[in-house]
Amino acid sequence: MKHVKLFITLSLLVMVTFVSAQKIEYQGKEYKIKKDLIFLDGVDVTPNLTVSEQTAIKDALKNKVALEKAEKEQKKAEKKQKEAEKAEKKAEKKQKKAEKAVKKREKAESNLEKGQKKLKKDTAKYEKLKVDGKLSPQDEEKWLKKLDKQKENIEKAQKKLRKM
């Protein structure tokens, strides 16, 4: 839809440019050119000009039109360049966000793994102390609280990972 509107607008602009008289300044005088006729101050001066002058005026007009076209193309290229830079920045931002999310997930996984290892190690130590009879009732209570806290932390870490 956007391209269709742009095409129609450009087509109309081109038609208006070629249908209407085009102005060109040549040797300090402003000429208007319609088809093959050259006007000066609204008067047809084509027969009064030499063939070389007519050619020079028409060439000057062609050069002017070519220059205007080149300027438009340059502006269009600059606009495309800006759009490309904007898209590149957006892609970079998206990439950084994705990398950050991956790092966050890896850290959460690492924390979970560390917690599980610590729980396993502490549970084994608790069981060994219990079997050896080296735990007082207060120590056993402390150990059980410590192990429960570790289990809670592991559950929290697992929930956090599931949400990611």
TrEMBL record:
Domain of life, source organism: Bacteria
Keywords on record: Signal
Signal peptide: 1-21
Disordered: annotated segments: 70-164
Signal as UniProt keyword: yes
Biased composition (Basic and acidic residues): 70-91, 98-158
Protein name, per record: Uncharacterized protein
Annotated organism of origin: Aureibaculum algae
